[in-house]
Amino acid sequence: ELHILNSCSPSQLQGLCSFLQLSTCPEPSLVHFCRWLLALSPALSYTSAALLAEQLFLRRVLSLSQPPSRHLLAALAAFCSKYSQPFCRVLVAALLREPGAGAEQIKLVCELVEECLEPDCVQLVLSQVLEVPLSEKLLPVVQAVLGRQVSSPAHSWSLQEVLPPELLDLLVLTLCRQAPAFTTSLDYAKVVTAVLTVCQGQVS
């Protein structure tokens, strides 16, 4: 039945999501739905996957006031395993820009960076962070990106894959320009230390 998703226009898909009440369906059902999506062939288009990411997760994640349930984490991990680019461009971008996003939302982004996302999406998340004014709230996300590079022995990712020179330059420039706003920030100090540790061969 899910093959119908491949023949829907964006407006039809939005209507179908509303009809099926996907944004409020029980979380165990959400896990099943996301796992069924993995078996869908051909895969969803980028537009459809982005729309589904918004419908399935945005309201749930923005409303978090405590750590997400194991069912929600399982659904997120399943969706990210196949559609991480549209997921990051829709959901993670919204969380980074949402003024009401709190500690639980940022912790979730950090967990996705540390556990679920592939190098290109880790890089995408960092570039999204650097597109908005750096704040105390977002520093843990930068730290998670840098920590992912030094604590992933199971993966053979080079530094260049995750943090190419142009992105490193932008990160260092951002940290330097905004340093006066973080003179008493322990998280800022940790990020600077991580940059100097992880990227010591590239930072002069």
Automatic annotation (TrEMBL):
GO cellular component term of the entry, any: Fanconi anaemia nuclear complex
One matching Pfam family: FA_FANCE
Protein name: FANCE protein
Gene3D superfamilies linked to this entry: 1.25.40.480
Domain of life per record: Eukaryota
InterPro entries to which the protein is assigned, alphabetical: FANCE, Fanconi_anaemia_gr_E_prot_C
Domain Fanconi Anaemia group E protein C-terminal: 1-202
One GO process term, biological-process aspect: interstrand cross-link repair
